[in-house]
Amino acid sequence: MSLQFNVSSLLKEPTGSIRDYDVEGRALVNEDGPDVRDVSGCVKFLRTNEGILVTASLHGIEHESCSRCLKPIETGVDLEFQEMYYPVSDIVTGVRLPEPEDPEAFRIDSRHVLDLEEAIRQFWTVARVMQPLCRADCKGLCPQCGQDWNDRGCDCAPAADERWSALGTLLRK
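The structure assignment produced for this chain is given below.
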């Protein structure tokens, strides 16, 4: 199923009309590179006097690297959002409608297609884990030899942090 919905019939219905859809599709989640992810879940479209209010509950998988040991991992990304979509033209007359007050508002195009991909991309960016871990107690890598401390230790001497050197001189006194 696509992330685009023709909402022309819903726009012709009275305020309060509802449509529920199961969603399964692929969305571009990162504009910097061709980063496309599978997304699934459900959405509800509610006809309002201004357009369509979308309530979404979606899930996807992010492929990342552990921030400590660099092993590849998969983390779940859950998206819950409500966004208003405004039509660009009147469904009956075809006359162009005034722009919404918010210049960043989501729009329903002139063919009356509501596209969820940009909202998914924005909410995906916010929902991603900032420092993903393969497990909560991940020990990371040795900064000197690169040994994965989760597999086994190494013989490297612990690295001294120069920021604490003043305390070392106090201990020696």
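Interim note for the steering committee: The chain is about 15% helix and 40% strand. The chain has two domains: 4-138, 139-173.
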